[in-house]
Design brief:
- The structure is a single chain.
- The chain has a domain of about 170 residues.
- With about 425 residues, it is α+β, with helices and mostly antiparallel strands.
- It has a seven-stranded mixed β-barrel with strand order 1-2-3-4-5-7-6, surrounded by four helices. The protein has a four-stranded antiparallel sheet with strand order 9-8-10-11.
- Helix 11 crosses helix 13.
- The chain is about 35% helix and about 20% strand.
């Protein structure tokens, strides 16, 4: 497609843009709900200069943006937007073979969006043999009433070559905040793992906490990290009798407790209280307030073990340890686990049905994905993943769905 020179390429972009303007009814009849419709295996096509695609893969550890076209094939129609920006993304999941991609629709032209979206993620699921952990976990969180990104599987083509099975992931950004929290004028931080951190106090300098590990996602001129330092200090230094009252000035404790309970239900090995310390969440501080709430992100390492302890790592994280020492919050934690067990069900329950629905939907696309990667045991080493490994991990997920609720209920009955 990019056989011409650079001048011709930009002429193509201009013609494509005019085509969008001249035929608005074709694109604007759809909504983001159609894009994230979990009942459909979506199809996304990206067109990028071949030299840029080579460079993105060669320099996959860099965050360099490249111009591309984004095409979504909906009911046989090509709905597209010209000149989006895309880059490699991820941390341990980055790969030159199957790069996950951040797509920004408004980077080059601030008024551009796609179905109202300014950003989205195309996740390669390179650490998960089933390629379903993330989507199933996020759907489960939403069923529990916890704000979580929408996701859908898609076949991804780049310059008409099939690159593999991906998930389209809703980005946590101002639109997400507005839709789920009713506002977006506060401070959003992406927790970016640097070293094991479990909310221990590391001193009074706000720069100790932001821009690393709490990376600002808005208010870049004045990210105002001082309340993060105050939050961590209060978590550590508030007296037991005053802990709930004082920490509630900084943390939505009920939301935090419900989220870590849900994550321990589906045995999230790399989450807020995972095995490496804090990881994989966004923190949003409400506008005109000091109170922050946690938003889940990246559930590749969910469904780790059927017999996962329901109090796993609760006592190694300062915030969860102190919060669950309060009887009312411990009761909320246990109630959330009970609700999660009821929601998941056992054999034939919702969780098994969801896994089977997704498996039937993606199976052929997964088999045909020659770029499949996975990381058994979270070794940190991505390696080629076979169809047998894909089927085997799906089989394990079905076992998890059939047995986990009963396991959790037994642990609750035993007072563990």
């Amino acid at each position: 497609m990019w056989s011409g020179n650079i001048s011709n390429m930009w002429q193509f972009f201009l013609l494509a843009f005019c085509a969008v303007l001249l035929s608005p009814l074709e694109g604007f009849a759809q909504t983001s709900d159609d894009l994230f419709n979990g009942n459909v295996l979506q199809e996304v096509r990206l067109y990028i200069h071949p030299h840029d695609w080579v460079n993105l893969r060669l320099h996959y550890l860099e965050d360099t943006y490249y111009a591309a076209e984004f095409h979504w094939i909906f009911n046989g129609r090509d709905i597209f937007t010209p000149q989006v920006a895309m880059r490699s993304r991820g941390l341990g999941s980055r790969s030159p073979i199957k790069p996950s991609l951040k797509i920004e629709f408004s980077r080059y032209e601030s008024q551009y969006n796609f179905l109202g979206l300014q950003n989205l993620v195309l996740r390669g699921n390179t650490q998960d043999a089933s390629m379903m952990h993330e989507r199933v976990a996020m759907e489960f969180l939403r069923r529990l009433g916890i704000p979580a990104p929408r996701e859908a599987h898609a076949r991804l083509f780049v310059n008409d070559a099939y690159e593999g099975l991906y998930t389209i992931v809703e980005q946590i950004d101002p639109l997400f905040l507005h839709n789920h929290l009713g506002e977006n004028g506060g401070y959003l931080y992406n927790y970016t793992y640097a070293d094991p951190f479990v909310f221990e106090y590391r001193g009074p300098d706000p720069a100790t906490y932001s821009p690393s590990p709490f990376k600002p996602e808005n208010h870049f001129i004045d990210p105002n990290p001082a309340p993060i330092e105050a939050m961590v200090r209060t978590i550590n230094q508030a007296s037991d009798s005053q802990f709930q009252a004082m920490v509630s000035q900084y943390v939505d404790l009920n939301g935090f407790v419900r989220e870590i309970a849900a994550e321990n239900f589906f045995s999230e090995q790399d989450g807020i209280i995972g095995d490496y310390g804090l990881n994989n969440f966004f923190l949003y501080r409400f506008q005109n307030s000091l109170v922050s709430t946690f938003l889940p992100w990246d559930k590749s390492n969910a469904f780790w073990a059927i017999d996962w302890p329901i109090l796993h790592n609760v006592h190694t994280d300062v915030l969860s340890k102190r919060a669950l020492a309060i009887p009312s919050l411990l009761a909320l934690y246990s109630d959330t686990l009970r609700i999660a067990a009821d929601t998941a069900g056992g054999e034939g329950g919702w969780l098994e049905q969801e896994i089977m629905k997704e498996y039937r939907q993606i199976r052929q696309a997964a088999y045909e994905d020659g770029n499949k990667l996975c990381d058994p045991g979270a070794s940190g080493l991505l390696r080629p993943c076979s169809n047998d490994q894909f089927d085997g991990e799906v089989g394990y997920m079905i076992q998890f769905a059939q047995q986990r609720a009963a396991n959790v209920q037994a642990q609750l009955a035993a007072g563990q």
